[in-house]
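Technical annex, item 7. During the second reporting period the consortium partners agreed on a shared format for inverse folding records so that results from different sites could be compared directly. Each record opens with the tokenized structure and is followed by the designed sequence. A conforming record, contributed by the partner at site C, is shown below for reference.
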């Protein structure tokens, strides 16, 4: 049982002034796994005030000083890596092997990547007697989702601190354990009081107050499109900057010359990994019609060999989804696919057979649909679960048309044995990020989407740049 009864404000662990207690479910068992205290409007006020008071001094630090701080955070993060992996598995249900190999390293590296990127950036551009300076924007509200509870806060915090900003972090209500541990890491690494503040709470309370607060200069929000509309509306009266990373329905285009083993691996790793709870999940696979049968056979064989179950087992590939509510959402989409006439290839409604301790967990059967129309809900809407749609095509032009026929544009995948063809198709995809073949995900490159997948970019120098204002000083002679 995990318990947390304090928030982190102005460099101290402190009881909330108007908090409530929330019970959190263990995704693997469905039973209570922890209790945390949630803050309220008064706590947001304290946190924003602390960040505002800390900003002049921290914003005036040199890049060299901030690089040193970021490296210290990265080192402390490495020391607490196993603690963080256990926290992610406890709150998300991620297999411990995935928490150790993906969630935690990706988060830790954000601080090193930000330090390296800041070292390369020139924050003053001298144009004769005009100097163009890039300066920290101020106090930033960081609102993060539950599906990558270590990476998302780390990426936002690293970029904001690199820029010289002070922050208030509101993590997802469903996944607070890793954010609490992050506060401990930042404190141990020597982040000055007030520079980082953590307020747990409901989006409708803590988030709404942060979005509208006149002393918050910027909101960085990752989450759903409908919620982002409210974020932007609340921020509009104070004209604060709003950075958003929203949903996706990312296609994999399997070109006619593709290696089907690579195409299947992409669908499994990027479509079903993290239980499909990934904004950029490869949830649509577009396959040449004459290779459809071979692809489905290979995909089914691979899925049949996956272990679904106990997140603490080293050989588990897929754990549960995060909550009973999310389980119900995924089940609803599976039924929609069946009702719409898509062919169920493997998986389907209900839970996989599991031992008694896990029967109450939020497990979903890895599910594949074929004969999917690109206009079906399962092909157009973000499911956020382990459900793949396979769509046949007759020409590459048709495949590109279907890939781009989406309100989203976050991520895309291209599989081909010809590098030039793969790159040419990738350049035509209307997405902010494209992976070719079995390339490893690059967490040191800009991340963000086109269309309804958000605006702005995160990570590396592009991420730092989102937290900077631009000032022109004309007539500099000394």
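Designed sequence (site C submission):
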């Amino acid at each position: 049982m995990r318990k947390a009864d304090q928030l982190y404000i102005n460099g101290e662990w402190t009881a909330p002034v108007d908090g409530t207690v929330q019970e959190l479910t263990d995704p693997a068992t469905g039973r209570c796994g922890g209790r945390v205290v949630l803050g309220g409007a008064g706590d947001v006020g304290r946190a924003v005030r602390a960040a505002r008071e800390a900003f002049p001094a921290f914003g005036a630090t040199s890049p060299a000083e901030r690089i040193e701080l970021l490296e210290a955070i990265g080192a402390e993060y490495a020391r607490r890596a196993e603690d963080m992996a256990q926290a992610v598995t406890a709150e998300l249900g991620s297999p411990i092997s995935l928490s150790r190999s993906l969630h935690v390293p990706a988060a830790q590296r954000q601080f090193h990547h930000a330090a390296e990127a800041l070292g390369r950036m020139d924050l003053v551009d001298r144009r004769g007697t005009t100097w163009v300076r890039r300066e920290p924007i101020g106090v930033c509200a960081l609102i993060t989702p539950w599906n990558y509870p270590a990476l998302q806060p780390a990426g936002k915090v690293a970029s904001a601190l690199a820029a010289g900003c002070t922050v208030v972090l509101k993590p997802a209500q469903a996944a607070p354990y890793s954010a609490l541990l992050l506060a401990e890491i930042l404190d141990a690494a020597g982040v000055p009081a007030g520079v980082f503040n953590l307020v747990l709470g409901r989006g409708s309370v803590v988030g709404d107050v942060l979005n509208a607060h006149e002393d918050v200069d910027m909101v960085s929000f990752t989450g759903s499109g409908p919620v982002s509309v409210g974020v932007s509306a609340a921020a509009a009266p104070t004209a604060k900057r709003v950075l958003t990373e929203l949903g996706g329905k990312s296609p994999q285009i399997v070109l006619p010359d593709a290696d089907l083993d690579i195409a299947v691996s992409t669908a499994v790793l990027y479509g079903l990994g993290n239980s499909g709870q990934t904004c950029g999940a490869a949830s649509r696979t577009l396959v040449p019609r004459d290779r459809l049968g071979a692809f489905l056979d290979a995909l089914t064989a691979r899925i049949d060999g996956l272990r679904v179950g106990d997140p603490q087992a080293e050989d588990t590939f897929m754990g549960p989804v995060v909550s009973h509510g999310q389980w119900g959402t995924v089940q609803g989409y599976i039924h929609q696919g069946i009702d719409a006439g898509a062919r169920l290839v493997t998986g389907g409604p209900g839970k996989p057979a599991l031992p008694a301790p896990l029967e109450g967990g939020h497990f979903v059967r890895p599910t594949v649909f074929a004969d999917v129309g690109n206009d079906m809900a399962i092909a157009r809407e973000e499911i956020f679960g382990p459900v793949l749609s396979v769509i046949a095509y007759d020409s590459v032009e048709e495949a590109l048309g279907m890939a781009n026929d989406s309100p989203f544009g976050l991520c895309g995948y291209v599989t081909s044995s010809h590098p030039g063809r793969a790159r040419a198709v990738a350049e035509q995809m209307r997405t902010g990020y494209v992976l070719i073949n079995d390339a490893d995900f690059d967490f040191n490159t800009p991340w963000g989407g086109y269309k309804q997948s958000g605006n702005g970019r995160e990570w590396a120098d592009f991420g730092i740049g989102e937290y900077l204002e631009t000032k022109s000083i004309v007539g500099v002679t000394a």
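Residues 138 and 333 are 42 Å apart (CA to CA). The mean pLDDT is 97. All partners now use this format for quarterly exchanges.
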